[in-house]
Design goal:
Elements: E1 2-5, H1 20-27, E2 31-34, H2 39-46, E3 51-54, H3 62-74, E4 78-81, H4 83-91, E5 95-98, E6 110-114, H5 119-124, E7 128-131, E8 137-141, E9 145-149, E10 153-157, E11 164-167, H6 179-192
Parallel strand pairs: 1-2, 1-3, 3-4, 4-11
Antiparallel strand pairs: 5-8, 6-7, 6-9, 9-10, 10-11
């Protein structure tokens, strides 16, 4: 079973942000919704899961960092999206910076370059893809491996783990029109079976 960490239901702009589970529903995967309650309750739910997806949102909180630390310690596969990717990067000595040209509602916003010899490249099989974009901050640096970039860091991974990836874009919003994004979820789910 895949655990999906829920966030506050609406962003500062009034957009719904608990949408990963609807993508999983469409893909037919089994999942467990894990609300942001107290850390002990969250840990007990994480213990029941073979993999965890952390969603986007406005700004990360200390509890997001605690969740990532726990998942990392247990070596549970993690897919961290947008704000959760930023929290992942910050946890590993990263720093965020404001960026003003990465927020829109288009299906494709810009290209990202994927580095070879990364798990992300192994999954997607391409060095350049188009992605959507909906963030106001990005990682300036982190100790994790940067696996994709545009004019900012777009994906990071811990190469010492079987799957510990953060993506700045929203693959869950693209699965109905982009087969490459579907590959990310299919690989993740297969690994977690």
């Amino acid at each position: 079973m895949i655990g999906i960490i829920l966030n506050d239901g609406v962003s500062n702009e009034g957009n719904g942000i608990n949408y990963v589970y609807s993508a999983f529903f469409k893909l037919g995967y089994d999942y467990l919704l894990i609300p942001l309650t107290n850390i002990d309750d969250i840990k007990s739910k994480i213990d029941r899961c073979k993999g965890i997806i952390m969603q986007g949102g406005d700004d990360y909180k200390d509890i997001h960092l605690s969740i990532i630390k726990y998942i990392h310690k247990l070596d549970i596969p993690l897919l961290a999206i947008c704000m959760s990717m930023q929290a992942l990067g910050v946890l590993f000595n990263g720093k965020l910076k404001y960026i003003d040209n990465h927020k829109d509602k288009k299906d494709y916003s810009h290209y990202v370059n994927i580095k070879k010899n990364t798990l992300l490249y192994k999954i997607i099989g391409k060095t350049k893809i188009q992605v959507n974009s909906a963030h106001k901050e990005c990682l300036e640096y982190t100790d994790l491996t940067v696996s994709a970039y545009s004019n900012c860091i777009e994906a990071i991974e811990d190469t010492n783990k079987k799957f510990f990836i953060g993506l700045q874009w929203h693959p869950e919003k693209m699965i109905e029109y982009d087969k490459l994004e579907r590959k990310i979820f299919d690989y993740f789910f297969k690994l977690c079976k």
